[in-house]
């Protein structure tokens, strides 16, 4: 199982280590540093690195490498999932997951890691349970603790841990009972030169924020559950009920959690919300290139496309870009050659455009590669797949909760080739 | 006020100050001090000196303080074992605490203190906790058994904890069940044959029930355990599959992949015509696709596994090609994997799409990726015949871009396309030739030269082209030199009249001016071939080549089956069987897929109706060189002697060579020819060359020549003998009484890096024995015959025959008892006989077993002391130097020698064929005939065998 964990910052220093079995010398990280050196970009460090006696499995989050050391045959996904959980927990506890935050709370970090794994076996990874065992630091509590000498470690066994619903503690009380659900969809797409879709798929999630007293039992039904043929559920969802009736039935965890994530595959027709007209050309023998880009809304069901951000990695030969946006602002970084254009909202009457010239190194030959255009956007009050919640009911408790559902569509990896 | 303040103090008196604070009366001050100590510990400062002071803080009601002290204890107890005892009392007391949280914490922490003395005290509390009324305590105790087993396995067995653990599988609480399974699996890893997890339908049922209710991590443990079970029949298999499928919708990707593993394995048993089989296939695709939308590192692991799955069952993902299309900001390791899978999924139906994508990738920025994309186009052409034409034209388009590395990759793959579809696309040769000058990589140059040589008759200026390469012959890499030599010989055989000079030039460059034995030998072979029998030369050199077909990089079917059983593990990421890289490979069991219901026991031949393309018709892969030569030349390939070739008498050889070259060419070239001959200074080298490359000898040689060569071989074999490797005397393995008159005695020897099994077969029966064959059972180190048993003549009554069988170590592995036991079956025309023998482990010491000094030191320290074993060798009268020399002969390498107080300490290393290192310290005291040897090895099982070998080597 998981032997040790090292946290490595961007400059390559190990700033925290934790061992769950015998101590593994930190020199084992040298192999990681070697791989890091070989990789051209920080993201390109391979996730699994073999060394003579150990395996290093790492994830990069918030510019910190979380490097787990294992010695025997352990499923790598198990380790990676666990590392994700560690990152999430830190973020949950400290608001941010940075080197400074971790150092500021090193004792809590240690207590958490000790609570999350025992001898390399996961022990408590649900944030509900952890929070009962180790209270998250707040400014107030830190002050009170310093004065009164009280502790931030729970004295009692968390109630939920051994019940049939390990994700929920008993005795939850709220004065305002509310349940909010956010349906968020991201479109991943590749659009080719001519504007036709090569591949497009939707990654959707339903995130919930449930603050309800007692042990409520919820059911959520959809207008068009047929869309959801590839889903991953939070453990609280009753799978049998879903299989039989296509209804989500569950006792929710307390607070924020992800109820389900789903995937609408490329075989369904995925609506593409924007189109891009582009003309990026270089002429042989000339030190100038033309850049011409226009955006327009496509299938948006009448909703406004907002927070549009266009970015593109221009060819290495480009020295500078002299462009003129019809709206928004653009920047070009001559070192990384990254062009980004903050467009804002698309007005269908007056389409945003970015036009101008790029200067090349004098005498350099015409660049071989074609830049790819990356697009980020947001559309409020719409799930692009068409998914709609039909109704939400609560059983098991008497009060009437406040309910709310929000929809949002974003661009995920949305790429236009030129 | 944050914890970062704990990091700031670095003053000298720090430890002293902390000590004072730890002993303070104020609780608050104590806690702050302990926190400071922990903070120092996390950044790697040594605060072990504070041990007694910290332990004093342990007796407290404050849970946080208690936890902090426990953290400290776990870290430092090992270095202060005597002090750690002080803590025992508190632990034992805490195990009785009314609060289950404290009970669990105590037993958990105690298990983490890796000190032998403490473990004794742990047994009683642990036993109680395993039966605790609170499931939280029970599940913690289950893990504790695994911890204890890691420290002291014997103790755990003696105390009967394993049985208690097995009982916990039937516990009422699913979390306890999951942890018990996890603990048992971990323990079983170090006991491959112990049958700890005895899976039967009842336990399986319990596991499946627990599966629905336990935590995500518990589900992974249970699923991985289920995967080891072999259902009795297809009905059971189906019912397990039905209960596992809901896990495919889990949010945790590790759960999903473990479930995929179980399903992939159990699916083998389902009849293919079953409706449920089709349903299951459909259900597998979505979760795999979903994994690809996760974070890149998850994607990478998923992709490596999908690579296996599409080879085994391409039908699952055949409609999902698009999800493997590369996004330009994917990390490079994801891009390369996706590309690989795209090619595997390429078919006639989707080839247009794939090609368009690949062409797009070929214009990207990342050079490695672009190269792989170009290569992928070539692979598509070879895989999907209908697309070949389109692929070739795509490649030509890419060549037009003139981007240097693209052109070179394109030429390399076009060569393969020519080999697959001969006489079809030669029209493009002209375009290729235009780019001759831009090729600077050896692989591309060699490919181009191959094309020119192969199609010399259609290229008008082939001789000029090849001549231009010849100018810088000595600066070329070997690959190019060899290719150039062959190409010119081909050209010569096709157009003998104009190219004599060229061939003469290249032959002399290859044979006289080169030090490379391969090149020289090939040169001589061609030379001799041309001079002896030009017609034969034509037959050999211009023979029709076997077509390359299908994909050349498929994983071999049996390995694939094994890897499918390991989906989700490291083995699946590396595409190697676990035994190949798991530390010490303690006789890892090879896992196999269960046979399908229709095909009965024969696992090797899945039923022919199955749709799984990969397994039923293993695609013809390019035959490896050995096979090809074996077929072609029908020569005895057995011992390719790698020892230095003997110096041949130079004058005789020189004459011979002259003769040889004089004759033959005339007949090929007619009257115009001038006899080749010239300076034959390379005669001696020639003899040497022949000695080293017996396998490349064509069969059509005239008798006297091959006779001479045989002599050379004998000599070579003889030279190999006095290497000094220890070989025990022959013993009788199979007495005649037991084998209907066949008596076999034998021994093992290691000659020139090859393990030989040397046998004397004696026929003590009345009739002639023929048709000998030999086979080994699976054994600890994978020994297997490297070739058939060569007994060519029948064995008449009362006759003896010597046979030497070279062994390889790549056979199937199974741990034997004793470790070096080998079970052998010998067959002859009468019957099959079985016997077992033991080989000295020194046979397995490989030649490169000499460890670097630094590595040796580090490894010695790194191996835990528990793995050290000490032995006495009595009555040995060698000096330390003589000892060291003697052992060196058997690949035991002395790395350093130290003399302390009249004692010589020799530090030695050896490496076994399966990569296990054994380190030894040999103490030799002058005047004392008793030596002491201490062995350290990560797989301590081998120590006993190594010691026996030591004794045998030194006393003979």
TrEMBL record, chain A:
<dbReference type="InterPro" id="IPR028565">
    <property type="entry name" value="MHD"/>
</dbReference>
<dbReference type="GO" id="GO:0030659">
    <property type="term" value="C:cytoplasmic vesicle membrane"/>
</dbReference>
<keyword id="KW-0653">Protein transport</keyword>
<keyword id="KW-0813">Transport</keyword>
<dbReference type="InterPro" id="IPR018240">
    <property type="entry name" value="Clathrin_mu_CS"/>
</dbReference>
<dbReference type="GO" id="GO:0005794">
    <property type="term" value="C:Golgi apparatus"/>
</dbReference>
<dbReference type="InterPro" id="IPR050431">
    <property type="entry name" value="Adaptor_comp_med_subunit"/>
</dbReference>
<keyword id="KW-0333">Golgi apparatus</keyword>
<feature type="domain" description="MHD">
    <location>
        <begin position="176"/>
        <end position="417"/>
    </location>
</feature>
<dbReference type="Pfam" id="PF00928">
    <property type="entry name" value="Adap_comp_sub"/>
</dbReference>
<dbReference type="GO" id="GO:0006886">
    <property type="term" value="P:intracellular protein transport"/>
</dbReference>
<keyword id="KW-0472">Membrane</keyword>
<comment type="similarity">
    <text>Belongs to the adaptor complexes medium subunit family.</text>
</comment>
<protein>
    <recommendedName>
        <fullName>AP-3 complex subunit mu-2</fullName>
    </recommendedName>
</protein>
<dbReference type="GO" id="GO:0016192">
    <property type="term" value="P:vesicle-mediated transport"/>
</dbReference>
<dbReference type="InterPro" id="IPR036168">
    <property type="entry name" value="AP2_Mu_C_sf"/>
</dbReference>
<dbReference type="InterPro" id="IPR001392">
    <property type="entry name" value="Clathrin_mu"/>
</dbReference>
<keyword id="KW-0968">Cytoplasmic vesicle</keyword>
<dbReference type="Pfam" id="PF01217">
    <property type="entry name" value="Clat_adaptor_s"/>
</dbReference>
<dbReference type="InterPro" id="IPR011012">
    <property type="entry name" value="Longin-like_dom_sf"/>
</dbReference>
<dbReference type="InterPro" id="IPR022775">
    <property type="entry name" value="AP_mu_sigma_su"/>
</dbReference>
<dbReference type="GO" id="GO:0030131">
    <property type="term" value="C:clathrin adaptor complex"/>
</dbReference>
Automatic annotation (TrEMBL), chain B:
<dbReference type="Pfam" id="PF02883">
    <property type="entry name" value="Alpha_adaptinC2"/>
</dbReference>
<dbReference type="InterPro" id="IPR016342">
    <property type="entry name" value="AP_complex_bsu_1_2_4"/>
</dbReference>
<feature type="domain" description="Clathrin adaptor alpha/beta/gamma-adaptin appendage Ig-like subdomain">
    <location>
        <begin position="726"/>
        <end position="836"/>
    </location>
</feature>
<dbReference type="Pfam" id="PF09066">
    <property type="entry name" value="B2-adapt-app_C"/>
</dbReference>
<dbReference type="GO" id="GO:0030131">
    <property type="term" value="C:clathrin adaptor complex"/>
</dbReference>
<dbReference type="InterPro" id="IPR016024">
    <property type="entry name" value="ARM-type_fold"/>
</dbReference>
<keyword id="KW-0813">Transport</keyword>
<dbReference type="InterPro" id="IPR015151">
    <property type="entry name" value="B-adaptin_app_sub_C"/>
</dbReference>
<keyword id="KW-0653">Protein transport</keyword>
<dbReference type="InterPro" id="IPR009028">
    <property type="entry name" value="Coatomer/calthrin_app_sub_C"/>
</dbReference>
<dbReference type="InterPro" id="IPR011989">
    <property type="entry name" value="ARM-like"/>
</dbReference>
<comment type="similarity">
    <text>Belongs to the adaptor complexes large subunit family.</text>
</comment>
<dbReference type="InterPro" id="IPR026739">
    <property type="entry name" value="AP_beta"/>
</dbReference>
<dbReference type="InterPro" id="IPR002553">
    <property type="entry name" value="Clathrin/coatomer_adapt-like_N"/>
</dbReference>
<dbReference type="Pfam" id="PF01602">
    <property type="entry name" value="Adaptin_N"/>
</dbReference>
<dbReference type="GO" id="GO:0031410">
    <property type="term" value="C:cytoplasmic vesicle"/>
</dbReference>
<dbReference type="InterPro" id="IPR000225">
    <property type="entry name" value="Armadillo"/>
</dbReference>
<feature type="compositionally biased region" description="Low complexity">
    <location>
        <begin position="605"/>
        <end position="619"/>
    </location>
</feature>
<feature type="domain" description="Beta-adaptin appendage C-terminal subdomain">
    <location>
        <begin position="845"/>
        <end position="955"/>
    </location>
</feature>
<dbReference type="GO" id="GO:0016192">
    <property type="term" value="P:vesicle-mediated transport"/>
</dbReference>
<feature type="region of interest" description="Disordered">
    <location>
        <begin position="581"/>
        <end position="655"/>
    </location>
</feature>
<protein>
    <recommendedName>
        <fullName>AP complex subunit beta</fullName>
    </recommendedName>
</protein>
């Amino acid at each position: 199982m998981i032997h040790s964990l090292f946290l490595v910052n961007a400059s390559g220093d190990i700033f925290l280590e934790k061992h769950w079995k015998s101590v593994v010398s930190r020199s084992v990280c040298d192999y990681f540093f070697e791989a890091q050196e070989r990789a051209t970009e920080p993201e390109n460090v391979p996730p699994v690195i073999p060394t003579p006696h150990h395996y290093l499995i790492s994830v990069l989050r918030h510019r910190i490498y979380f490097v787990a050391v294992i010695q025997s045959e352990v499923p790598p996904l198990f380790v990676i999932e666990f590392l994700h959980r560690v990152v999430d927990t830190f973020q949950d506890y400290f608001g941010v997951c940075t080197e400074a935050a971790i150092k500021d709370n090193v004792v809590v970090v240690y207590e958490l890691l000790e609570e999350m794994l025992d001898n390399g076996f996961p022990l408590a990874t649900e944030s509900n349970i952890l929070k009962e065992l180790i209270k998250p630091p707040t400014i107030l509590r830190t002050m009170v603790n310093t004065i009164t000498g009280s502790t931030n470690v729970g004295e009692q066994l968390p109630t939920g841990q051994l019940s049939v619903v390990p994700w929920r503690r008993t005795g939850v009380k709220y004065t305002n009972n509310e349940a909010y659900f956010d349906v968020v969809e991201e479109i991943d797409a590749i659009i080719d030169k001519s504007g036709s879709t090569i591949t497009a798929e939707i990654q959707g999630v339903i995130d919930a924020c449930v603050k309800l007293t007692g042990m409520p039992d919820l059911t959520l039904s959809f207008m068009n559950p047929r869309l959801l043929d590839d889903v991953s559920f939070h453990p609280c969802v009753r799978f049998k009920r879903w299989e039989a009736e296509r209804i989500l039935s569950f006792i929710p965890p307390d607070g924020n959690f992800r109820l389900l994530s789903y995937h609408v595959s490329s075989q369904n027709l995925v609506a593409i919300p924007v189109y891009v007209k582009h003309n990026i050309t270089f002429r042989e023998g000339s030190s100038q290139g033309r850049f011409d880009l226009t955006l327009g809304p496509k299938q948006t069901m009448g909703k406004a496309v907002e927070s549009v951000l266009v970015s593109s990695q221009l060819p290495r030969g480009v020295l500078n870009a002299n462009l003129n946006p019809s709206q928004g602002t653009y920047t070009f970084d001559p070192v990384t050659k990254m062009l980004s254009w903050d467009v804002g909202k698309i007005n269908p009457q007056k389409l945003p455009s970015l036009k101008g010239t790029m200067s090349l190194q004098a005498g350099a030959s015409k660049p071989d590669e074609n830049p790819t255009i990356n697009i980020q956007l947001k559309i409020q009050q719409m799930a692009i797949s068409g998914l709609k919640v039909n109704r939400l009911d609560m059983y098991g408790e008497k009060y009437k909760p406040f309910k709310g559902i929000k929809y949002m569509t974003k661009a995920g990896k949305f790429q236009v080739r030129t | 006020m944050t914890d970062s303040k704990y990091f700031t103090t670095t003053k000298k008196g720090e430890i002293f100050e902390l000590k004072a604070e730890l002993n303070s009366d104020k609780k608050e001050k104590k806690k702050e001090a302990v926190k400071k100590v922990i903070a120092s510990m996390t950044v790697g400062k040594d605060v072990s000196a504070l041990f007694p002071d910290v332990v004093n803080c342990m007796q407290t009601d404050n849970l946080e303080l208690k936890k902090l002290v426990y953290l400290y204890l776990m870290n430092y107890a090992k270095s202060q074992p005597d002090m750690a005892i002080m803590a025992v009392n508190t632990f034992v007391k805490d195990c009785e605490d009314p609060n289950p949280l404290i009970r669990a914490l105590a037993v958990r922490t105690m298990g983490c203190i890796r000190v032998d003395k403490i473990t004794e005290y742990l047994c009683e509390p642990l036993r109680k906790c395993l039966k605790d009324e609170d499931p939280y305590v029970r599940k913690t105790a289950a893990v504790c058994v695994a911890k204890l087993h890691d420290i002291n396995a014997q103790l755990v067995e003696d105390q009967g904890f394993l049985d208690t653990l097995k009982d916990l599988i039937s516990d009422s609480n699913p979390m306890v069940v999951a942890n018990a399974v996890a603990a048992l699996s971990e323990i079983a890893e170090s006991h491959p044959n112990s049958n700890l997890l005895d899976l039967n339908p009842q336990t399986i049922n319990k596991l499946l029930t627990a599966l629905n209710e336990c935590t995500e991590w518990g589900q992974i443990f249970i699923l991985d355990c289920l995967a080891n079970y072999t259902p009795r029949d297809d009905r059971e298999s189906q019912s397990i599959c039905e209960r596992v499928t809901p896990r495919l919708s889990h949010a945790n990707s590790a759960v999903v992949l473990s479930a995929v593993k179980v399903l992939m394995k159990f699916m083998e048993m389902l009849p293919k015509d079953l409706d449920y089989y089709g349903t299951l296939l459909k259900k597998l695709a979505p979760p795999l696709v979903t994994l690809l939308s996760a974070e890149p590192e998850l994607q990478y692991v998923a992709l490596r596994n999908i690579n296996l799955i599409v080879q085994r069952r391409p039908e699952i993902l055949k409609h999902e090609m698009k999800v493997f299309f590369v996004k330009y900001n994917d990390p490079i390791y994801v891009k390369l994997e996706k590309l690989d899978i795209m090619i595997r999924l390429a078919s006639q139906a989707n080839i247009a799409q794939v090609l368009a994508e690949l062409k797009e990738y070929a214009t990207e920025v990342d050079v490695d990726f672009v190269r792989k994309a170009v290569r992928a186009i070539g692979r598509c052409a070879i895989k999907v015949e209908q697309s070949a034409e389109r692929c070739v034209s795509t490649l030509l388009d890419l060549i037009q871009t003139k981007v240097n590395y693209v052109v070179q990759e394109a030429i390399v793959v076009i060569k393969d396309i020519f080999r697959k579809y001969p006489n079809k696309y030669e029209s493009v040769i002209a375009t290729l030739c235009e780019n001759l000058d831009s090729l600077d990589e050896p692989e591309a140059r060699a490919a181009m030269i191959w094309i020119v040589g192969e199609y010399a008759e259609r290229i008008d200026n082939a001789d000029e082209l090849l001549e231009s390469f010849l100018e810088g012959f000595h600066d070329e890499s070997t690959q190019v030199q060899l290719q150039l030599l062959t190409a010119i010989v081909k050209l010569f055989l096709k157009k003998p009249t104009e190219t004599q000079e060229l061939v003469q030039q290249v032959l002399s460059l290859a044979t006289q001016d080169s030090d490379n034995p391969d090149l020289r030998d090939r040169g001589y072979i061609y030379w001799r071939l041309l001079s002896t029998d030009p017609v034969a030369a034509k037959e050999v050199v211009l023979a029709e080549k076997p077509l390359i077909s299908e994909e050349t990089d498929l994983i071999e079917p049996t390995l694939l089956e094994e890897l499918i059983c390991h989906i989700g593990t490291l083995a699946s990421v590396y595409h190697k069987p676990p035994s190949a890289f798991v530390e010490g490979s303690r006789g890892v069991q090879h896992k196999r897929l269960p046979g399908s219901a229709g095909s009965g026991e024969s696992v090797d031949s899945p039923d022919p109706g199955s749709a799984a393309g990969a397994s039923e018709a293993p695609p013809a892969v390019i035959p490896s060189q050995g096979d090809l030569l074996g077929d072609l030349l029908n020569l005895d390939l057995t011992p390719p002697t790698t020892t230095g070739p003997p110096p041949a008498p130079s004058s005789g050889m020189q004459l011979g060579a002259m003769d040889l070259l004089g004759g033959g060419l005339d007949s090929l070239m007619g009257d115009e020819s001038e006899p080749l001959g010239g300076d034959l200074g390379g005669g001696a080298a020639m003899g040497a060359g022949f000695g080293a490359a017996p396998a490349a000898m064509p069969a059509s040689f005239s008798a006297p020549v091959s006779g001479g060569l045989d002599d050379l071989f004998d000599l070579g074999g003889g030279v190999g003998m006095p290497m000094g490797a220890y070989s025990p005397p022959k013993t009788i393995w199979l007495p005649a009484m037991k084998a209907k008159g066949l008596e076999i005695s034998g021994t093992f020897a290691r000659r020139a890096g090859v393990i030989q099994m040397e046998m004397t077969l004696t026929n003590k029966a009345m009739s002639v024995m023929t048709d000998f064959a030999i086979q080994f059972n699976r054994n600890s180190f994978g020994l297997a015959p490297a070739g058939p048993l060569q007994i060519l003549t029948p064995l008449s009554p009362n006759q003896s025959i010597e046979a030497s069988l070279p062994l390889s170590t790549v056979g199937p592995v199974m741990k034997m008892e004793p470790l070096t036991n080998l079970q052998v079956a010998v067959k002859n025309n009468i019957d099959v006989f079985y016997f077992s023998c033991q080989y000295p482990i020194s046979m397995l010491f490989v030649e490169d077993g000499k460890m670097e000094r630094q590595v040796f030191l580090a490894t010695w320290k790194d191996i835990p002391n528990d793995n050290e074993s000490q032995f006495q060798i009595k009555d040995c009268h060698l000096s330390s130097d003589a000892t060291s020399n003697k052992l060196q002969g058997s690949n035991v390498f002395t790395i350093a020698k130290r003399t302390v107080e009249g004692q010589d300490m020799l530090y030695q290393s050896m490496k076994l064929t399966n990569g296990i290192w054994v380190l030894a310290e040999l103490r030799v005291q002058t005047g004392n005939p008793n030596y002491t040897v201490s062995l350290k090895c990560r797989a301590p099982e081998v120590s006993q065998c190594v010691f026996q070998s030591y004794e045998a080597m030194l006393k003979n």
